[in-house]
Amino acid sequence: MSVRNLLLLSVVGLFLGCSCGSKHRHGDVVVVKERCIWALTDEAYEQMTEYCNRRDERALENMETIGLVGILEVGDKGTITDLAFDRVKIRLDDKSEVWVANKFVR
After folding, report:
1. Do 33 and 75 contact (CB within 8 A), yes or no?
2. Nearest alpha carbon to residue 6 among 43, 61, 45
3. Are 105 and 37 in contact (CB under 8 A)?
4. Where do the H-state alpha helices sit in the chain?
5. Which long-range contacts (CB under 8 A, 24 or more apart) does 84-93 make?
6. Distance between CA 46 and CA 42 in Å, rounded?
7. Do the Cβ atoms of 22 and 96 come closer than 8 Å?
8. CA dihedral 81, 24, 79, 106 (to 10 degrees)
9. How many CA atoms lie within 13 Å of 24's alpha carbon, on the beta-carbon side?
10. 44-99, pLDDT tens digit by residue?
11. What is the Cα–Cα distance from 16 to 5, expressed in whole angstroms?
12. Residue 99 — φ and ψ, nearest 5°?
């Protein structure tokens, strides 16, 4: 995926993904409903947000290169392990845990 597409997904997800009334709960199994970006840690999510707001493609590309961000595909599943205002942390089948905007999971 190109950095430009990654940036576009991030910006859309961050601005539209704020779901204050989320009905997600710990332990829920969720499915990715749209291709989206994930962040490995809470700090990486905040950094990704900053880079998306600045439209800093090079910084996002660097984060992707070192494994701090990546892409989830439609249909990927995970179990919620943590909740935040605008995002959830999910455990994927490979046992990794990543942060994703609420908007992209159901």
Report:
1. no
2. 61
3. no
4. 3-16, 42-54, 57-65
5. 84/42, 85/18, 85/20, 86/14, 86/17, 86/18, 86/19, 87/17, 87/45, 88/22, 88/24, 88/30, 89/42, 90/30
6. 6
7. no
8. -150
9. 28
10. 999 999 998 999 999 999 999 999 999 999 999 999 999 998 899 999 999 999 99
11. 16
12. -95, 140
DSSP class of residue 67 equals T
- Note the CATH number of domain 3-104: 2.30.30.40
CB 41 within 8 A of CB 68: yes
Helix, strand, or coil here: 15?
Answer: helix
Say if residue 18's pLDDT is above 80.
no
Which pTM does this prediction carry? 0.77
Could you tell me if 84 and 75 are in contact, meaning their C-beta atoms sit under 8 angstroms apart? no
Closest by Cα among 16, 41, 6 to 102: 16
Q: Which residues contact 85 (CB under 8 A, 6 or more apart)?
A: 18, 20
| Whether 40 contacts 90, CB under 8 Å | no
Q: Token pair for residue 45?
A: 């999510």
